[in-house]
Here is the input.
Amino acid sequence: MSPLPHPRSIRARYTIVAAGFSLIIMAVFGTTLDLAIRNRIQANTFDDAERVASQWSAQARTGYVPRQIPAHAPVDLIQIVDARRRVVDASALASKTVPLSRLRPPSNDRFQRDIECPDGGRCVILMAIRLTPATDAGIVYAGVREPDLLATHGLEYSIASGILLITGIAAWTTWALVGRTLRPVEAIRARISEITVSDLSLRVPVPPGGDEISELASTANQTLSQLEGAVEQQRQFASTTSHELRTPIAGLRTQLEEALRYPDDVDPRQAIRSALTTTDRLEAIVNDLLLLARLRAADPAPGEKIDIGELITAEVTARPQSIPVNVKAPPGLKTCGSRMQLIRVLDNLVANAQRHAESTVDISAEAVGDGLVVTVADDGPGIPPAHRERVFERFVRLDDGRRRDPGGSGLGLAISRDIARAHQGTLRVEDSPKGAKFVLWLPLLPCRPEQT
Here is the structure.
């Protein structure tokens, strides 16, 4: 058996659910109401019949009963029947020969109710009262023809009509309210369909109010802004990367072409050395680009407990001292992170400081609040305030840096800042009396048990 079709529209689904729920509730309520009304009408009719039957039972025991019993609506069927089932007295509308019922109450239960339904006629709701406990006592019948609400299905039809009307109103209301609620969603969908990678400047309309849809639209616009910035950054990165790679590739090609065209004028060994130097620079740029891509796209690497003071001392001791380096990093300052990545940051900062320093480089580490601060300062010309953020951009190299290190890739500080961010830290340039002062802040993050 194939499953029922599932509506794709949220509006249709909610309308069907609301209509079905309303129909079930109203059907239960309608059934209860129908039974309650029927039982109430029937009980009232029995009470009326019992009152009239009791009245004529008392009259019959005294012997003062007219030949034609007077009757008034609604109880207009009255009979007094003897022990042989002969009609002794009757009202005008009751039969003078046929008893209203064959029911004969016993002597120990003189009051009994009954419903008689003759063939082809309307049922009669009646009360039968035995005059006395004697064996030959007569019976008084007082009955009412079944009311229209009980005899027909008019009550059920009316209740069913009301149920369908209320269900229809509930369905229409749900359809209208859900449609009104989803109207901003449709506007958002239509606008998003217009947005392409080549044009991310469009924004989705934000409906008034502070409901969930408004928050969704605001979040979508924030995401689009971030996406536009990221795409623009990637475009600039691709353009800058192409420019930076074109220069060494063109130089390498020129060197090789000269070696082929002028074999007598070009020293092959010197050409190979120059080509290898250019290749080394290309390899360094590519490796740095791959590291940047991993830092910005991949999840953080599993951390290990690292003593920053010991790490700084070990790395400074191991590297060549072209410029003296003064270290003030006490042990015990621990954080959680990637040892290799933090070593890369320290190497970049120390190498940069030694490249620009005139006489000395100072490195210090200390705990500040809930983090630790590593400072690398030199006594060189420093970095102008206007360029302190530019130096962290990819391939950005100031004139002094190009002069001191022509073969650099311009990616070291960008990689260092990305590593700091991957460790939930920061890297920035701060004011210094002389030279440049790079400040690395790392949180004192505890490692998970398996990372200790």
